[in-house]
Amino acid sequence: MEHVRTYVSSGGTDGHLWHGVPTLLLTTLDRASGRAVRTPLVYGRDAGRLLVVAAGTGGPHHPSWYANLVAHPEVRVQVGTAAFPAWARTADPLERETYWEAMTGLWPLFDDQQATAWPRELPLVIIEG
């Protein structure tokens, strides 16, 4: 994916904004092979924590990066020029409700993707470094 190549090759000075919204690069370990997999994701922030949504374009199944982090919650994150190890977890129902509006404010398509994915609930993920 060109966005990821640009983000990585520039050291994060280019690619942080994608279609006008902030994106991070999340690296997880593939649950089957153990290979590192990098995924660009729209993110929000709250009190030093990063927030992402496992939308998977609104399909019937969770995206593979989400299944990977559930299996291996130790992740690596790049936000702009900063890269660091972190820990990821699924938000509990109250956290999801609290942060959902902020995430749809950043990327309104999350609401459409949630409607398409129903009855699958799109997980909101909290990443702490």
Q: What string gives the helices and strands in order? A: HEEEEEHEEHHE
Shape annotation: globular
Oligomer: single chain
Distance between the termini: 26 Å
Tally of separate helices: 4
What this model shows, in words?
This protein is of the alpha+beta class. The protein has helices spanning 2-9, 64-71, 93-106, 109-117, and strands at residues 17-18, 21-29, 36-42, 44-46, 49-53, 74-79, 82-90, 124-128. 30% of the residues lie in helices and 36% in strands. Strands 1, 2, 3, 4, 5, 6, 7 and 8 form an 8-stranded antiparallel β-sheet that branches. It is globular, with a radius of gyration of 14 Å. The protein has a single domain, classed as Pnp Oxidase, Chain A (Roll), CATH 2.30.110.10. The protein contains 4 helices and 8 strands.
Give the SSE map.
Layout: H1 2-9, E1 17-18, E2 21-29, E3 36-42, E4 44-46, E5 49-53, H2 64-71, E6 74-79, E7 82-90, H3 93-106, H4 109-117, E8 124-128
Antiparallel strand pairs: 1-2, 2-3, 2-6, 4-5, 5-8, 6-7, 7-8
